[in-house]
Amino acid sequence: MLTFQNPAISLKNVTKIFGEQTVLDSLSFDVERNKITTILGFSGAGKSTLLKHILGIMQPTSGTIEVLGKDLSTLGKVELREFRRNYGMLFQYAALFDSFTAEENVGFPLKEFTKLSKEDIHKRVSELLISVGIKEESFTRLPSELSGGMRKRVGLARALALSPHIMLYDEPTTGLDPITTKMVNNLIVDTAKNHKDREMTSVIISHDVRATLEISDYVAFLDRGKIVEYLPVDEFKNSDKELVQEFLKL
Ligand SMILES: Nc1ncnc2c1ncn2[C@@H]1O[C@H](COP(=O)(O)OP(=O)(O)OP(=O)(O)O)[C@@H](O)[C@H]1O
Ligand SMILES: [Mg+2]
Predict the structure, then answer these.
(1) For the chain, which terminal residue's Cβ has fewer other Cβ atoms within 10 angstroms, N or C?
(2) In the chain, what percentage of residues exceed pLDDT 70?
């Protein structure tokens, strides 16, 4: 199991019980700063639950979760809301606001969380959209007028609006065609690279092995609420755990 000196995220003995079901089982897990870490696992393993604990939208039954050196359980409601500015999140289906244009979608967090002027928001939104490869002619389109790949780009631009230190990707490539998958992969890598100087840690939750192995620095395997393997990507491919090899063959 990997541990790090000064991890971006650190879970210690985290247990989450729903009714009779133990979904996270005394799970301990460190995420290295400025790297891309993927958490793989079968459906129902507890991946989304783990992600919600990292985001602080779900509290553990027991155990501690530290993000950027802060124990999340010590934060009040208001502090937690403020702390969430550190996170950017790209959802599986981009989760854009349907009645907002691309521009309005990306501007939303800036309007909500900053005191920037209209002009400054407009400027920042244009930069963000251009940086993810959206051309000016598409700025005023609604999500329904964009392709799936473009929606992902707009979703990423919105996630990046507040310059997060932790980027979380939930199934970023699941259900996409191979070309769009490649595009999203490149986008994740470029995003991590472009933000390295001001610190960005990327965590990907996925069951798409091939897509994520190519771009990850570290890979963890979650099974029944426990991290059963956690290695640098090249070593992960040669894991001697039967379950991991089974998963890799899928
Ligand atoms: N709010 C909840 N209340 C009760 N049970 C829950 C809740 N959230 C998740 N679970 C249960 O926890 C288990 C793990 O769910 P989770 O969504 O974390 O899995 P997952 O690994 O993300 O799966 P998938 O790959 O299908 O998205 C499931 O058995 C689910 O039914
Ligand atoms: Mg899930």
Answers:
(1) C
(2) 100
* Residue 15 to residue 221: CA distance in whole angstroms: 17
Instruction: Answer whether 40 contacts ligand 1 (Cβ < 6 A).
Output: no
Q: Whose CA is nearest to atom 1 of ligand 1?
A: 18
Q: Which of 90-99, 114-123, 224-233 has the lowest mean pLDDT?
A: 90-99
pLDDT in tens, 48-77: 999 999 999 999 999 999 999 999 999 999
**Which two tokens mark 217?**
């620095």
Which option is the CATH number for 1-68+165-250: 1.25.40.10, 3.40.50.720, 3.40.50.300, 2.60.40.740?
Answer: 3.40.50.300
**CATH 3.40.50.300-classified regions of the chain:** 1-68+165-250
CB 67 within 8 A of CB 166: yes
Ligand 1 proximity of 47 Cβ (cutoff 6 Å):
yes
User: What order do you get walking across the sheet with 70-71 strand by strand?
Assistant: 21-31, 9-18, 62-67, 70-71
Q: Separation of 15 CA from ligand 2 center, angstroms?
A: 17
